[in-house]
Amino acid sequence: MDTDFHQTSPDREIRKATIIIGRNCWIASRVTILPGVSIGDHSVIGAGSIVIKDVQPKSIVVGNPAKVICQFECDDNWIRNELIPDHIKEQFQNNNNK
What is the pTM of this model? Predict the structure, then answer.
């Protein structure tokens, strides 16, 4: 149980862990991601989803608890160009070519 670093009762342990979000992920509004969860590269999390376990790369998950509804293939260097300003695209491409 995540309690924002305070105990809800003296006999419960405080749970804290890092959330890892991969590259090029889309996380919709009102999504809850529990501590310790990793979201893989290129994944999409549907609105209002509650993510309680790791999400594999290139997955679409939705629901409470979030479940995989689709896995897809894309190039690992693929980015959503229509949403990214040109100067950021150039930086990303230059970093990947190193």
Answer: 0.69
Residue type at 87 in one-letter notation: H
User: Which of 21, 45, 44, 16 is closest to 31 using CA atoms?
Assistant: 45
The dihedral built from the CA positions of residue 13, 18, 21 and 22, taken in this order, carries a sign that is negative
Per-residue pLDDT of 58-67, as tens digits, reads: 999 999 999 9
Residues catalogued as catalytic: 6
Q: Where are the beta strands (DSSP E) in the chain?
A: 20-21, 26-27, 32-33, 38-39, 44-45, 50-51, 59-62, 67-71
**CA–CA distance, 83 with 49 (Å, rounded to integer):** 23
pLDDT digits (tens, 9 = 90+) for 24-73: 899 999 999 999 999 999 999 999 999 999 999 999 999 999 999 999 88
Which of 17, 26, 30 lies closest to 79 in space, CA to CA? 26
The answer to whether 31 touches 51, Cβ cutoff 8 Å, is yes
